[in-house]
C-alpha cells in the first residue's frame, strides 16, 4: 500500500467531526440531511437481499441518467435484486420515485472499513458507478472482494483532470483496479487514460435514451393550462448567483418582455425562499408552482418549487435556458430540452457538457450566450420568431437521435464483463 493511500485512509477518522458539522449545516436548509446517518458512516448494514446489481448515482442528475440503463439491466436479469445508492437526500428521493422495488440507501463515506463492510454485507453481483464517482477505498475494497466495478456514463472534464493529477499517486492505482469504464466521449476516454485507466470503451451517454414518462407529459399539459396563452421562458436548474443576474436582465429588457412569463426552477430546493426574496426585492410579482393556482395576468415570475418535474416544466415552456452555465458550474443537463424538443440556450460555462454543447449547436438545437443580458435578448428574439423555434425543434430531434443507444452498449459491456468473471 502506497503512503498516499495510507494517508488518505487515515484522514477519514479525524475528518469525522467536520463531516458531521457539514451535514448539520446542510440540514438547516434541507432537514433530510439529518436522516440515515448510520448508513453514511458504514453502519445499519441490513441488506434486503444479497447478490444485487448495485448502481451508485451521487445525486438527482446521475440517478435520472441511470434510468435507461436500469431498464436494460432489468430486461437482461429480471430476477436480480436492484440496489441504488446516493450521497444526497434529493438523489435518494429521486431513486425511490423512479425505481420502485429497489433497495435505496446512502453509500458510506470512503472510510476504509466502511467501504469494505458495505461490500461484504451486500455482496453485489456487480457495481456500476455513474459518471465520475471515484472513491479509492471503495474501488480497492471491490477489487479485494472480487466485485466487478464498472464506471458507466463516465465523464471527466479538463478541470477535474487537473484536480486528480494533483493526487495521481492515490488515484492511478484505483483507476487501474476498475474492471471497465464506459466513457461518454473520446475526449473523456483520453482524460481517463491520463489518470492510468485501462479497459475503456466509448459508449456515449445514457441521457439521450431517456423517454418522457406519460405522467410528465400530462403534467406539462396541466402547466400550460395554468400559464394560459402566455409565452414562457424557462430557466432550469439555476444555481446560486444566477437568478439575480437573470432577474436583473429581465427587468432591464423593459417593455420588450411584454407579458412573457419567466419560470425559474432552482437546482437546489433549499434555495427556493432566497430566490423568491430576490424577485420580491425587484418588485416582480411571483407565484409558486405549489399554490396549484392559475397564473395571474400580473404575475411576472413563476417559481418551480417542486422536485422531479423538469420534463413537465420543459414541456410547458417555449424556450429553455439551462442553468449552471452563467456562473462557473459547468452547465446542467442540456440534453433534456432536446428530448422534449424545446429550443435551448446556455451560457459560457459548459465543462460538464462540452461535447454535448458543441453537438447541440452543430445540430441547430441550442445556442450559446455570453451572459444573462445576452440570454434574455436571445430568448425574446426566439419567442418572436416561430419559424426559427420550429427549426430548432427539428434540430433537437436530430441531435438526440444521433446519440441514442448508449444504454444498450453499456449493457453489452457489463454483460461481457460479468461473463468473463463467471
Automatic annotation (TrEMBL):
One of its GO terms (molecular function) is Kdo transferase activity. Its EC number is 2.4.99.12. GO terms for cellular component: plasma membrane. Residues 35-210 form the 3-deoxy-D-manno-octulosonic-acid transferase N-terminal domain. It catalyses: lipid IVA (E. coli) + CMP-3-deoxy-beta-D-manno-octulosonate = alpha-Kdo-(2->6)-lipid IVA (E. coli) + CMP + H(+). Its main location: membrane. Pathway: Bacterial outer membrane biogenesis; LPS core biosynthesis. Pfam families: Glycos_transf_N. Involved in lipopolysaccharide (LPS) biosynthesis. Catalyzes the transfer of 3-deoxy-D-manno-octulosonate (Kdo) residue(s) from CMP-Kdo to lipid IV(A), the tetraacyldisaccharide-1,4'-bisphosphate precursor of lipid A. This is 3-deoxy-D-manno-octulosonic acid transferase. It comes from Chromobacterium sphagni.
Amino acid at each position: 500500500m502506497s503512503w498516499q493511500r495510507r494517508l488518505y485512509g487515515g484522514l477519514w477518522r479525524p475528518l469525522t467531526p467536520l463531516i458531521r458539522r457539514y451535514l448539520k449545516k446542510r440540514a438547516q436548509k434541507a432537514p433530510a440531511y439529518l436522516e440515515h446517518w448510520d448508513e453514511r458512516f458504514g453502519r445499519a448494514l441490513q441488506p434486503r437481499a444479497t447478490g444485487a446489481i448495485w448502481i451508485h448515482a451521487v445525486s438527482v442528475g446521475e440517478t435520472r441518467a441511470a434510468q435507461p440503463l436500469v431498464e436494460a439491466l432489468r430486461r437482461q436479469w429480471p430476477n436480480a435484486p436492484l440496489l441504488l445508492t446516493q450521497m444526497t437526500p434529493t438523489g435518494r428521493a429521486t431513486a425511490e420515485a423512479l425505481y420502485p422495488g429497489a433497495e435505496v440507501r446512502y453509500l458510506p463515506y470512503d472510510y476504509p472499513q466502511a467501504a469494505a463492510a458495505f461490500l461484504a454485507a451486500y455482496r453485489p453481483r456487480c457495481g456500476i458507478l455513474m459518471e465520475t464517482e471515484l472513491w479509492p477505498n471503495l474501488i480497492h475494497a471491490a477489487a479485494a472482494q472480487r466485485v466487478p466495478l464498472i464506471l458507466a456514463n463516465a465523464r471527466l472534464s479538463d478541470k477535474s483532470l487537473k484536480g486528480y493529477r494533483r493526487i495521481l499517486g492515490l488515484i492511478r492505482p484505483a483507476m487501474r483496479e476498475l474492471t471497465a469504464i464506459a466513457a461518454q466521449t473520446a475526449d473523456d476516454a483520453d482524460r481517463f487514460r491520463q489518470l492510468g485507466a485501462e479497459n475503456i470503451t466509448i459508449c456515449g451517454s445514457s441521457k439521450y435514451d431517456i423517454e418522457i414518462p406519460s405522467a410528465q407529459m400530462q403534467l406539462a399539459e396541466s402547466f400550460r393550462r395554468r400559464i394560459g396563452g402566455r409565452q414562457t421562458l424557462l430557466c432550469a436548474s439555476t444555481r446560486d448567483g444566477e437568478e439575480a443576474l437573470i432577474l436583473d436582465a429581465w427587468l432591464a429588457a423593459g417593455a420588450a418582455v411584454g407579458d412573457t412569463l419567466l419560470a425559474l426552477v432552482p437546482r437546489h430546493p433549499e434555495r427556493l425562499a432566497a430566490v423568491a426574496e430576490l424577485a420580491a426585492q425587484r418588485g416582480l410579482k411571483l407565484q409558486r408552482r405549489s399554490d396549484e393556482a392559475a397564473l395571474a395576468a400580473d404575475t411576472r415570475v413563476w417559481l418551480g418549487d417542486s422536485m422531479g418535474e423538469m420534463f413537465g416544466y420543459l414541456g410547458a415552456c417555449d424556450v429553455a435556458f439551462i442553468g449552471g452555465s452563467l456562473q462557473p458550474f459547468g452547465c446542467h443537463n442540456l440534453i433534456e430540452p432536446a428530448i422534449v424538443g424545446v429550443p435551448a440556450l446556455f451560457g459560457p460555462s459548459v465543462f460538464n457538457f462540452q461535447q454535448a454543447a458543441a453537438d447541440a449547436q452543430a445540430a441547430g438545437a441550442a445556442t450559446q450566450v455570453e451572459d444573462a443580458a445576452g440570454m434574455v435578448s436571445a430568448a425574446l428574439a426566439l419567442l418572436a420568431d416561430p419559424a426559427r423555434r420550429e427549426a430548432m425543434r427539428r434540430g433537437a430531434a436530430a441531435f438526440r437521435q444521433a446519440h441514442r443507444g448508449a444504454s444498450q452498449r453499456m449493457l453489452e459491456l457489463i454483460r461481457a464483463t460479468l461473463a468473463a468473471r463467471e
